[in-house]
Amino acid sequence: MQLHTQTWGEGDRVALLIHGIMADHRTWRRVGPALADHGYRVIAVDLRGHGASGRGAYSPELFADDVVETLPAGAELAIGHSLGGLTLSLAVDRLRPARAVFSDPAFHLAAPVDGFGPELLAQFKTATKEQIRAMSPRWDEVDVDIELETLAVWDERTALSLAPLVGADLMPAAPVVPSLVQLADPSTLITQERAQLLKSLGFEVRSVVGAGHTIHRDDFDGFMASLEGWL
User: Which 3-state string (H, E, C) describes 114-130?
Assistant: First the structure.
């Protein structure tokens, strides 16, 4: 599937951005222009079932195939957040960016706790502005509004498609290219033990102190600072 894309900048270097579940390219509204200021031509996708991209069957493998179909290989930088991080890990051997950043990636979907699982995630489609604001109190108001807009066009079946993966180990065996794993503090997806394992496999691991899961919205300055040496 050819995905809808958004581009910022006209630099000679290319950066790729892959969003997480429920979001679309608009989640990168500050990151895209910031990378363009660093001389990149930045291309962000809407994964299938999200934003202006098509609908269909859903799985991480299909998300990855779409990204490979849509984005250019050999970019200088690729960043994937959450589900986008998992998607990037499944596409990186074909995309072959010079550097990859996995921002609080969905490398492990823990068994549901207190009923929180793919079904509840799907129900978040009907979240109100007050609920979004309560869950993400550090977000700018414009990001709360964008979240409402992206939820309206999101196919919640993408969340339900993750049910077979709950409890599975989705961590890459090794970095295909030089790779940074950027973690929330604390991360609900990557435990300290898993972070140590990633380090032993050859990934660089950095945490953004106090940041929630969507680091680039929760602490934009911390997000950019943690990319020092990777831009």
Answer: CCECHHHHHHHHHCCHH
Question: Considering Cα of 71, then 195, then 211, then 168, what sign does the dihedral take?
Answer: positive
Among 141, 6, 150, residue whose Cα is nearest residue 70: 6
| Contact call for residues 214 and 140 (beta carbons, < 8 A) | no
Beta sheet of 204-207, edge-to-edge order: 5-8, 40-45, 13-18, 77-81, 99-103, 179-183, 204-207
Residues 6+ apart with CB under 8 A from 158: 21, 47, 48, 49, 50, 58
- pTM for the full predicted model: 0.97
What token pair was written down for 58? 């859903």
* Per-position DSSP letters for 86-153, written without gaps between them: HHHHHHHHHH--SEEEEES--SB-PPPBTTBSHHHHHHGGG--HHHHHHH-TTS-HHHHHHHHHHHHT
pLDDT digit string (tens) for 113-146? 545 578 888 999 999 999 999 999 999 999 999 9
Q: Could you tell me which of 169, 191, 187, 209 has the C-alpha nearest to residue 86?
A: 169
